[in-house]
Design a protein that fits this description.
InterPro entries: 4CMD/NDH-1_regulator, AhpD-like, CMD-like, Decarb_PcaC. This is 4-carboxymuconolactone decarboxylase. GO terms for molecular function: peroxiredoxin activity. By secondary structure, the protein is mainly α. It contains seven helices and no strands. The longest helix has 20 residues. The protein starts with a helix and ends with a helix.
């Protein structure tokens, strides 16, 4: 498991960036440490570390799933990650258009609003 944790941390840093991961790690407590380990090993060390699809495709899938399920809190983080995954603005738009058709226009509309705000912030940084 130590290897999966380290691999997960490496992938997490490459996708989300050191600043985000350092902040999250700095906020970690004994209460949420098991949860952070679960995410690092499961999401990042297993799913994101897989070479079955590209980071670009995985990014698009993640954004579409977040929007479709109404998990809007993580959309800005994953929009920022597109700078590292290679998913373009057009890719994100295409993913959210699929959300509109298959999961509902209101969810896609809100996701697009968050994406626009986040891209604006990214361009100003």
């Amino acid at each position: 498991m130590a290897n999966r944790y380290q691999q997960g941390m490496d992938v997490r840093r490459s996708i989300l960036g050191d600043t985000h991961v350092d902040h999250t790690e700095g906020c970690k407590t004994s209460f949420d440490e098991p949860f952070q380990t679960l995410i690092t090993e499961g999401a990042w060390g297993t799913v994101w570390a897989s070479d079955g699809i590209s980071d670009r495709e995985r990014s698009m899938l993640t954004l579409a799933l977040l929007a479709a399920l109404g998990n809007f809190e993580e959309i800005p983080m994953h929009i920022r990650a597109t700078a590292n995954t290679g998913a373009s603005k057009q890719d994100v738009l295409e993913a959210f258009q699929h959300v509109a058709i298959y999961a509902g226009v209101p969810r896609a509309n809100h996701a697009l609003k968050l994406a626009k705000q986040t891209y604006d912030e990214m361009e100003q940084d």
